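Saturday, quiet lab. Running sequence design on the structure tokens for the scaffold JK sent over.
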């Protein structure tokens, strides 16, 4: 072995040597390696792709095509370049707490199919039971309790391994919070697991929370044939445990690995083709001491050397890196490195050194990364980015490939575990030998469980040596390239793998419920193993009114066929046609499930016409029923403020295929509500001080004023001993009827609510801890707040004058954000990080919460910092939005949700009001004043911002949203913490939809003209509210109407409007809100096409659009788009069918886009 000093010289000089001596070569020209195919591959299901840090590739239905799982979304690969939502295959009650921080496929019961393990956490502190989903012929069922996995811990990532090499997959699970240490669960071979953490020597405190969440890898790091364990630990030393061969792990962490940094993710592989596993640790911290990403070169015998700079990864030593993947992305015979947030692509130069090719990756800088797999079976590794750009939703990137060759190997264990996890493969091609070890995940993401070899220009593998976990060694020779093979342990041969070929002729991609079609099925089964026998082939037609087990008959050519007339039965949504193939093989029974998905669109749903439509019922939000009157010739709902009319269906209504809520509105005698002369019309709340003759200094009270600064009124009016919390402000309920605030009028500081006039105060929290900073969710059902209730040493400041900040002894320095129901029940902890998390603010759609935190240090100074973060409303996906030397605090979302106002000390230490985009970009200073400006609050129309300022003593000011026209609203005693009423000074209507689970999503229209309502027109007016404005994800349980008009208005002809049938027979339209620079019609993809193609076009401005397909004689075949469209980019999925849903014949067709005077025409080729 080369000496240690030789490797030291390697780390310093290698990269320079390679740059000068080994010029980089690749196949083809320098074109982008990846392309974003998300829009082309996703079959819409009514919900967008979610953001997930744990995507996993795996063929769960054995059809030969790798599928995708991203908690909680299962996507089936239909083999035609499309993925369809298959979440219905998971038949399990999964706790809403479960986020799936480490979701991994693996055949734990050796049944020949991929099971799924999903952890409860995802950077969140909530403890619950993890989920073990057993695969039963393509349907997943939770068997965790029966398997003995019953502990409730804050598990955050997990991996499969066979640590004792007994042929059964074991589980290593990392727990992050509440002192829960990582756990090793031994598979006992009977479907159950046993906790052997202590016996295996792994009952070790990894990090500050007990366990870890910085990624995991189980591989043979010391080449002794036994799997070892690497644990990445956040803000504590990383750990390496070597196995002693007797079932115990011994810590052997070398100095370089024991980095005390912000470890995020791990990747392992042989970067220098010397036959051992090297390690890459993705870490954060921006280059501070001990905070860097690291590439560790394996020196043998458990020793590793930091060679990050020596192999050309200088950029990664100077920046935070969230994710990492190692794989041969260009098929040249070595492992390349892909990182996320920030995105880098480093191509291996052939000897373990890397060259930056990020500029040709084809991926945006904001890409985060995830899992590798070959979803289209073309022999090149594709990538699913679990988070997507700016956490906007998962993104699938297709590897465009090159002329290089490849070999992919699927393992079938006999004595070893069925997946062959832990097997080591050596492929020899001429003088080049590559080593790959099949690992059971990376803690978070999981690559496809197929071993991938790039072969460059070589057309065969001369020798393939497989070392199985059982000790069996198989050797195969002269294997032709460009194929996927299946190797059965101990058989000494391989089996070429092909995906099952089948056609579902005349099955439309989309149809209206009730439509009929003639189905012709033709299936060519592919044997799983040599000499396999087909037992039976049958179809599940139950989604179309047919049998669950309709047999297919064998035909003369060996295929299996079926002809049957079927109907698209309700309800609307995705309908699955399944074909099952059962085989008998020498390994035992084998099954495969083939699937096609049809989008079943609804017809318009009547809610109210001449009374409630069956099965809808009309009621009030607090019982009873509103009046139904004959008005202007129509049976109508009488809408009287402030009563909320509620319409409920008999069963929840799926939102799939519905595009709008439409109704007729008549103002009747209603008019704009006049402003009464009392406190319930305060536009702005604020905190001020009040003295009486017996007091030496003031107490804090809640006041209300109008937007012009007039009519101040004391709403709380409490005696001194019932003071509000200093440094904290009130919060409006979204309907403007109640006020939440923190007060110590009881035994402790608690969250209270009261009516808008100060009446009926109610203590919600009643907890001895310090509860403060309430914030109401947009649907009014939940309140977020700050508390130190779960800390070892809760707040112990002055009980008579509690403060979030102030003099020594009165400062709350460590607390977290919680959420509770609006009545104080169901308290859930959302954050758990050192430091103070406070001042939570819900996004207008209720999906995210922005907050202020002191959890991290500044990336420039290394000092403790106060910054703005954002997270999902369940506490997951925490993202840091600001990172400047000065403190940033008190975020406030704009009503549109696209901006966040906040105060900052970034300019010379003086507090100013800033506004930035919701992703943290483009910060702009609005105030530019030498005095301190604090605590911004938006007006409900988004045109003004109220704030506190010391420019006239501490007083309330308001300015235009661009910072102009500031005016002082208060004078006298100090006044701060303004909160603008969400419905202040406006005539408005509330539209609300309650979804499955009880959550109410409200849409407040403050200018009735925005929905086409004119109170001066005393006639029926049609109103259409796009369902997209509600951002629905679950079925509808209620539709609600509320106005603040004086007098009675009327509603009639209330409907849910479906996507037009003419669109559903042949096309599905997707719209992305961007601002394209020019008019454009793109070439369809793929072209030629068989069953589906995508046509894209750009509209630089909103206008009427026609997109039409013609045959070559000029006859119109189908209208794909016809009508007004908003500016943006559109993707049209067309299935090659006419208006009636009839499949078109093969041939050349023209498609023509006309928008105003602009016309563009292109050709497409349909091949049947």
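Result came back. Writing it out in full:
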């Amino acid at each position: 072995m080369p000496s240690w000093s030789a490797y030291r010289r390697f780390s310093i000089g290698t990269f320079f040597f390679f740059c000068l001596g080994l010029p980089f070569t690749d196949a083809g020209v320098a074109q982008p390696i990846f392309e974003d195919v998300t829009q082309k591959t996703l079959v819409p299901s009514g919900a967008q792709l979610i953001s997930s840090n744990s995507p996993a590739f795996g063929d769960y239905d054995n059809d030969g095509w790798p599928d995708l799982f991203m908690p909680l979304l299962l996507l089936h690969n239909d083999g035609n370049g499309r993925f369809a939502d298959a979440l219905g295959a998971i038949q399990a009650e999964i706790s809403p707490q479960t986020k799936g921080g480490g979701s991994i496929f693996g055949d734990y019961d050796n049944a020949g199919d991929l099971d799924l393990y999903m952890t409860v956490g995802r950077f969140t502190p909530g403890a619950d039971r993890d989920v073990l989903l057993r695969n039963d012929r393509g349907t997943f069922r939770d068997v965790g309790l029966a398997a003995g996995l019953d502990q409730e811990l804050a598990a955050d990532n997990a991996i499969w391994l066979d640590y004792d090499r007994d042929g059964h997959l074991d589980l290593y699970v990392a727990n992050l919070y509440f002192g829960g240490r990582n756990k090793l669960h031994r598979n006992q071979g009977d479907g159950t697991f046993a906790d052997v953490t202590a016996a295996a020597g792994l009952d070790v405190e990894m990090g500050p929370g007990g366990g870890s969440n910085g990624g995991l890898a189980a591989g043979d790091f010391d080449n002794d044939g036994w799997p070892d364990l690497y644990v990445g630990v956040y803000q504590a030393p990383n750990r390496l445990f070597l196995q002693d061969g007797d079932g115990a792990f011994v810590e052997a962490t070398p100095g370089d690995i024991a980095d005390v940094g912000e470890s995020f993710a791990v990747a392992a592989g042989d970067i220098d083709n010397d036959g051992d596993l090297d390690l890459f640790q993705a870490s954060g911290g921006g280059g501070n001491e001990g905070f860097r990403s690291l590439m560790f070169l394996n020196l043998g015998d458990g020793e590793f050397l930091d060679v990050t700079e020596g192999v050309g990864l200088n950029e990664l030593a100077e920046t935070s890196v969230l994710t990492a993947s190692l794989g041969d992305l260009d098929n040249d015979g070595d492992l390349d490195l892909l990182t996320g947030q920030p995105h880098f692509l480093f191509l291996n130069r052939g000897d373990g050194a890397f060259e930056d090719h990020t500029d040709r990756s084809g991926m945006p800088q904001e890409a985060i990364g995830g899992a590798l797999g070959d979803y289209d079976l073309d022999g090149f590794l594709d990538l699913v980015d679990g988070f997507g750009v700016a956490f906007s939703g998962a993104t699938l990137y297709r590897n465009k490939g090159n002329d290089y060759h490849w070999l992919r190997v699927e393992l079938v264990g006999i004595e070893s575990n069925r997946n062959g996890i832990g097997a080591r493969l050596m492929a020899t091609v001429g003088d080049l030998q590559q080593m790959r070890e099949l690992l059971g995940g990376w803690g978070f993401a999981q690559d496809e469980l197929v071993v991938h070899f790039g072969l460059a220009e070589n057309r065969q593998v001369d020798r393939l040596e497989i070392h199985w976990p059982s000790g069996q060694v198989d050797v195969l020779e002269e294997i032709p390239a460009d194929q996927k093979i299946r190797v059965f342990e101990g058989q000494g041969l391989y089996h070429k793998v092909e995906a099952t070929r089948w056609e579902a002729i005349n099955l439309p991609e989309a149809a209206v419920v009730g439509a009929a079609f003639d189905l012709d099925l033709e299936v060519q089964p592919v044997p799983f193993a040599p000499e396999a026998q087909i037992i039976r082939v049958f179809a599940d037609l139950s989604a179309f009114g047919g049998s669950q087990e309709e047999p297919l008959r064998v035909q003369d050519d060996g295929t299996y066929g079926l002809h049957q007339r079927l109907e698209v039965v309700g309800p609307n949504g995705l309908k699955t046609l399944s074909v099952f193939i059962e085989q008998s093989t020498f390994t035992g029974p084998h099954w495969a499930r083939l699937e096609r998905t049809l989008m079943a669109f609804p017809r318009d749903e009547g809610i109210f016409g001449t009374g409630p439509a069956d099965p809808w019922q009309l009621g009030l939000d607090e019982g009873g029923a509103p009046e139904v009157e004959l008005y202007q010739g129509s049976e109508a709902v009488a809408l009287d403020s402030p009563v909320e009319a509620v319409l409920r269906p008999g069963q929840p209504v799926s939102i799939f295929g519905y595009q709008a809520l439409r109704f007729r509105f008549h103002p009747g005698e209603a008019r704009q509500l006049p402003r009464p002369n009392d406190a319930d019309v305060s536009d702005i709340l604020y905190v001020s001080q009040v003295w009486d003759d017996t007091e030496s200094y003031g107490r804090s009270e809640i006041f209300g004023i109008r937007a012009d600064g007039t009519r101040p009124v004391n709403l709380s009016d409490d005696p001194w001993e019932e003071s509000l919390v200093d440094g904290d402000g009130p919060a409006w309920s979204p309907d403007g009827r109640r006020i939440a605030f923190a007060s110590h009028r009881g035994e402790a500081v608690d969250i209270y609510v009261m009516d808008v006039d100060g009446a009926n105060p109610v203590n919600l929290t009643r907890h001895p801890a310090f509860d403060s900073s309430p914030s109401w969710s947009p649907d009014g059902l939940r309140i977020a707040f700050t508390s130190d209730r779960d800390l070892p040493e809760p707040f112990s400041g002055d009980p008579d004058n509690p403060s979030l900040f102030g003099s020594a002894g009165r400062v709350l320095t460590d607390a977290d954000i919680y959420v509770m129901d609006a009545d104080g029940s169901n308290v859930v902890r959302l954050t758990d990080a050192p430091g103070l998390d406070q001042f939570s603010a819900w996004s207008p759609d209720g999906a995210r919460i922005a907050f202020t935190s002191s959890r991290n240090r500044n990336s420039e100074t290394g000092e403790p910092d106060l910054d703005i973060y954002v997270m999902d409303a369940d506490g997951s996906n925490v993202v840091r939005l600001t990172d400047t030397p000065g403190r940033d605090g008190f975020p406030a979302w704009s009503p549109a949700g696209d901006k966040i106002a906040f105060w900052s000390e970034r300019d010379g230490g003086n507090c100013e009001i800033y506004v930035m985009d919701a992703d943290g970009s483009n910060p702009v200073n609005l105030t530019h004043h030498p005095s301190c400006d604090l605590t911004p609050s938006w007006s409900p129309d988004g045109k003004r911002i109220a704030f506190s300022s010391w420019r006239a003593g501490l007083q309330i000011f308001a300015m235009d949203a661009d910072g102009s026209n500031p005016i002082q609203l208060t004078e006298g005693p100090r006044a701060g913490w303004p909160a603008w009423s969400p419905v202040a000074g406006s005539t408005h209507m509330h539209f609300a939809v309650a979804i499955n689970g009880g959550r109410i999503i409200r849409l407040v229209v403050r200018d009735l003209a925005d929905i086409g309502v004119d109170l001066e027109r005393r006639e029926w007016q049609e109103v259409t509210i796009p369902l997209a404005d509600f951002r629905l994800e679950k079925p509808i349980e209620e539709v609600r109407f509320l106005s603040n008009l004086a007098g009675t208005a009327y509603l009639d002809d209330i409907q849910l409007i479906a996507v037009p049938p003419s669109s559903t027979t042949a096309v599905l339209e997707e719209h992305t809100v961007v601002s394209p620079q020019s008019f454009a019609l793109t070439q369809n993809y793929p072209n030629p096409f068989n069953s589906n193609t995508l046509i894209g076009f750009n509209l630089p401005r909103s206008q009427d659009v026609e997109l039409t397909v013609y045959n070559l004689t000029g006859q119109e075949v189908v209208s794909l788009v016809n009508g007004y469209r908003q500016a943006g980019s559109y993707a049209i999925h067309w299935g090659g069918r006419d208006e009636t849903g009839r499949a078109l014949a093969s041939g050349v067709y023209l498609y023509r886009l006309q928008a105003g005077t602009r016309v563009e025409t292109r050709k497409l080729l349909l091949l049947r």
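Notes for JK: The domain at 4-20+31-465 is CATH 2.130.10.10 (Methylamine Dehydrogenase; Chain H). The two ends are 61 Å apart (CA to CA). Ask whether to fix the surface positions before the next round.
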